[in-house]
Amino acid sequence: MTEIPEHLLKRSRERRAAIGKGGDATAPAGDAEAGGDAAGAAVEKSATAAPAAAAATGPAGRTAAAEPPAPKPAKPDPQYVVAAKQRRKVPFWAMATLSLMPVWGFMYVRALTEGGEVAEGPLGEGAAVYANCASCHGGGGGGGVGYGFTEGEVLATFPNIEDQIRYVYYGTEQYNLAGVDIYGNPEREGGPHVTGAQGVMPGFGGSLSDEEIVSVICHERYTLGGADPTSEEYAAEFEAWCAEGAPVFEEIATGALLLESADEVEPFDINGEVFFVSPIGPEPIPGTAPGGAIGGAGQPTSQGGNDEGSG
Ligand code: HEC
Hints:
Layout: H1 6-18, H2 29-49, H3 51-56, H4 58-66, H5 79-86, H6 92-99, H7 101-118, H8 121-129, H9 134-137, H10 153-157, H11 161-178, H12 210-224, H13 235-242, H14 247-253, H15 261-264, E1 268-270, E2 273-275, H16 306-310
Antiparallel strand pairs: 1-2
This protein binds heme C.
């Protein structure tokens, strides 16, 4: 058998490739590889012909290479292939957005599950009840028609939670009728808040349940007002009224009436301190200074202010 020079073989392969592998039927298996080589060479050639286009988008480059140089292709592409080739690919900038989709999905699911966990106890309930207050006091407690609660403002007015409960229960009108001018701390920094000075605060006793009133006040003091439940000043109050399973809150939630709750709730021990709940009472009474309504040593003193109120 005589050797056929390599350049002749190559030319033959190129020729066969050009006419669409016409002679392949008789060609040995080894030739298939050769045909593949030729196709590869063709791809390389066209790639160098349009390097910029090929480099910019991978798929586009392949499309260009696959187009045979011959004007009469044996089999024209079916409509759907043509359409697929002409269809616009996803732009590179959209890929960035699309690649964030799983992250977004993860955050979405997390947000849903965590929302369920937060709504527990007086604070969770109070956050929902606060929808009744947001129109006048701001969604985040920043203030509006009514005073703001944030940055300790509400705590400055009401050092003792009972005074705030009484105020929200009765509202401005009842305080006016009872002739009570100062509903909060009479020694408040910057002067006490005087009944009616800023407008009319509706009384919520009756329109909200006792449980709802206590929970929304817990929300105003601890979530919006920033009282620290672990601080010496507020730990006992928090444990008694606003913590999950807090004894006073539980009493009220299971039917004790808010206005009589002081008679129902025995003084009890919190972190070694005897804790008293002072009565809300059957009518508005003046607010108290720090330590006035609750304390570890003596009986509640909030009723003592009555003398000034009736004068
Ligand atoms: C229609 C508007 C309005 C709505 C609704 C409203 N408030 Fe008020 N609130 C006021 C106004 C006005 C004052 C000031 C009253 C005054 O000057 O006597 C006030 C005062 C207060 C204060 C005293 C703040 C301070 O530092 O002196 C508290 C606490 C309070 N509101 C709680 C609530 C709660 C809790 C709710 C929802 C259950 C609520 N408010 C809904 C208008 C409103």
